[in-house]
Amino acid sequence: MAQAVEEWYKQMPIITRSYLTAAIVTTVGCSLEIISPYNLYLNPNLVVRQYEFWRLITNFLYFRKMDLDFLFHMFFLARYCKLLEENSFRGRTADFFYMLLFGATVLTVIVLVGGMIPYVSESFAKIFFLSNSLTFMMVYVWSKQNPFIHMSFLGLFTFTAAYLPWVLLGFSILVGTSAWVDLLGMIAGHAYYFLEDVYPRMTGRRPLRTPLFIKSLFADETVVVTRPENVRFAPPPAQEDHQD
């Protein structure tokens, strides 16, 4: 069992494995009181006045206490982050990293601006961690890119992947959790989907082109196309040996 988990972990793509590891280590560290959540949450005043810039990152790593909700979000993080990185962004690690950076930036700006708007500022003031919203953004982007996949929710009913974010939003409301967290993820996900997929088809321009300095952080990857199982292929043609 342990060996199977180790193999599964090693086979994860780099961004998914790094994010999942950081999230688990941070959340477990807080549960064991090794790390204090008060040093991680998003606090604009401390970021601007005390230069605690790490809060812009750490608020995406803490998934609250170790409970069923934590396992639920770790499953979605491991599943949909991995699916995106291995399929839609296969061989494009820099683009996938840029998607997460864009989503994190949009979420942070929404919370900061929302905190200054009357009538809704109280709701935004209660949002200290955006980890769940970023995970929900990945679910939304995946559902938009794979809208016709058939899914089942708890074995109760089936639907296509296009409705997955709405099903999860409804479930969150039923169990009494804040809908704002999921809605923020949907807003960030739709912003990315529109600017990356819809707007370029409409205008021929791609505003979310990954900057070169981000591309330079990741080595070019070779995309390996695997053959489906249980499918017979004709043997490759014989090749003649050539001497230089």
From TrEMBL:
The chain crosses the membrane at residues 19-41, 96-117, 123-141, 148-167, 173-195. It is found in: Endoplasmic reticulum membrane. InterPro entries: DER1, Rhomboid-like_sf. It comes from the Eukaryota. GO terms for cellular component: endoplasmic reticulum membrane. Keywords: Endoplasmic reticulum, Membrane, Transmembrane, Transmembrane helix. One of its GO terms (biological process) is ERAD pathway. Its main location: endoplasmic reticulum. This is Derlin. It comes from Nelumbo nucifera. The lineage of its organism: Eukaryota, Viridiplantae, Streptophyta, Embryophyta, Tracheophyta.
